Amino acid sequence: MDNKSITLAIAAGLVVFVIGGGLGVFYQKQTDAPQMEKLAEMQSAINSLSLKTIISITAVGKVISVDGNKIVLTSTKDNLEVIMNNSALIYSSINPASSPTQVALKDIKTGDNVSISIKLLANGQIEGQSVMILPGFSAPAK
Question: What fold does the segment set 57-134 form as a domain?
């Protein structure tokens, strides 16, 4: 091969490389576009749920663990970790015949059924506002 053939082969290779790179960038932007739209929708939902008009959202489940001010709940297949606000109120209605009584966070035990009022913060994190320890539910006797 002479120098002219080698130069043409290198030039052709560079053209193919540049076109391939351009097509790759174009394709990548096409696959990212729907994800960016979904991200914008999620941010809009977070902004709506963190408005001052939304006082709280309720999470209900069985307590898996309590560690400091962190409660982990489970309900069917889902787990949720909730960091409780330092001024959160905790109530127990274990005895359905009496009014709920205020208790301490340390009184929540693994296995308790609870209802936690949570607030979605502007940064996307959730914060527990209050807890109601609910009476246990058992299957009816046969």
Answer: OB fold (Dihydrolipoamide Acetyltransferase, E2P) (2.40.50)
